[in-house]
Design goal:
With about 55 residues, the chain is α+β, with helices and mostly antiparallel strands. It has one domain. It is about 25% helix and about 30% strand. It has 1 helix and 3 strands, in the order E-E-E-H. It has a 3-stranded antiparallel β-sheet with strand order 1-2-3, with helices on one face. The mean pLDDT is about 95.
């Protein structure tokens, strides 16, 4: 799946949260997310809500 330029996320294993970046916006997503893949799926859902079409 292709991300837009500048689109990324960081999964924090310590508190199981996500910091996401999309179209110049930074956002925090509190979990807990059960692993990086669950965090990635939540991040991608949020980006779709913000207008991303993969």
């Amino acid at each position: 799946m292709a991300y837009e330029k500048g689109m990324s996320f960081v999964y924090n294993r310590r508190d199981r949260s996500v910091t996401g970046y999309f179209r110049g916006q930074k956002f925090e997503m509190r979990g807990p997310f059960n692993g990086r893949e669950a965090a990635r799926a939540a991040y991608e859902r949020r980006c779709r809500q913000m207008g991303w079409r993969d």
